[in-house]
Amino acid sequence: MSSTLFASSLLVSLVVSSVSAFFADEHQVREYEDWRHESNDEMIQALKQFNHIQSPQVESVMRSIDRRRFIERPIMNNPYWDIPQSLGFGSVMSSPKVHAQALEILKEHLKPGARVLDIGSGSGYLTACMAHMVGPKGKVYAVEHIEDLVEQANRTMHTYYPNLMEHGRVEFVAGDGREGHKEGAPYDVIYVGGAVHYYPFKLFNQINGDGRLIAWVGNNKGRQHLVAIDRPYDYHNNKLGNVSLSIKNLEKSKMGEYLVDHDEQMAKFYDTLKDNPMSVEHEMLYAYE
Q1: DSSP E strand boundaries for the chain
Q2: Torsion angle (degrees, nearest 10) of CA 101, 151, 252, 170
Q3: What is the CATH number of the domain that holds 201?
Q4: Listing from the earlier edge strand, what are the strands of the sheet with 170-174?
Q5: Of 11, 121, 129, 191, which has the highest C-beta tally within 10 A?
Q6: Of 13, 86, 94, 121, which one is the catalytic site residue?
């Protein structure tokens, strides 16, 4: 075969492959374009269309709490696009899809009067959503280690949602969320908003008897899966796809074994509970050495 004929055949092959790939990914391209929304209502309609919002409770709260209010200076992107948004200070706000998924998984526990711990609260958007769901008799502690973000979230809530700040319904705390917040424990819900490399064992003892903890767990390449743990330690690994998150890592120093095999770590944790349910804290301290 001449070099000219070979080059022509290769070009045709590449063109056919490209066209096939285009049509194969057409739905994905259309789906991506559908996430470029201009309003809160458009964003919610898309989240419903793609099944990220599945319940009236989550739809209602996301309509009531406007995402734009929590991004003081949007950089380049519309705040309603389904992508993470920069908050400055080396932190970002998770995408609308991630927030919707978290609220769906937690909705049965975010009942009126519930107590909530929001770790890595960032902008305060999800804090506001959860405060709305637990009602005036509920309580949400929002822990964030970046003091500027704590002040910004507090200011946003007092400016746009002062009713959620009444009667101490929301309390912003500047601190290290890796230790939880024992002052408000036990909690019906603990949400770890920043991706971590390790299962947050230290937080388990701050969940009440029928509470739920969820956290994004993954490696340092930004690929995480959502883990939900209920008491009495009913483990769920909710794989909502390999979602690439550009969220700050709450693990600022070495706290434990690197997450190589999460099933192995959970098996180790179950063995600890089976042998001696009261020795959880001791075992976790051993794991963190």
Answers
A1: 85-88, 91-93, 115-119, 139-144, 170-174, 187-196, 207-218, 223-230, 234-244
A2: -50
A3: 3.40.50.150
A4: 170-174, 139-144, 115-119, 187-196, 207-218, 223-230, 234-244
A5: 121
A6: 94
Q: What is the pTM of this model?
A: 0.71
pLDDT in tens, 157-168: 999 999 999 999
Strand 139-144 to strand 223-230: parallel, antiparallel, or no bridges (unpaired)?
A: unpaired
Residue 246 annotated in active site:
no
Task: Please classify residue 184 by burial: count the beta carbons closer than 10 Å to its beta carbon, then call 0-12 exposed, 13-18 middle and 19+ buried.
Answer: middle
Cβ atoms within 10 Å, residue 26: 10
- The answer to whether residue 208 is domain-embedded is yes
Residue 22 resides in a domain: no
Residue type, 99: H
What's the angle, vertex CA 57, arms to CA 52 and CA 60, rounded to 5?
90
Strand pairing category for 187-196 and 115-119 = parallel
Instruction: Extract the tokens encoding 27.
Output: 């739905």
CB atoms closer than 10 angstroms to residue 287: 18
pLDDT in tens, 57-113: 999 999 999 999 999 876 556 889 888 888 888 888 889 999 999 999 999 999 999
Residue 204: is it exposed, middle or buried by C-beta count within 10 angstroms (0-12/13-18/19+)? buried
Domain count, the chain: 1
Token reading at 195: 């991706």
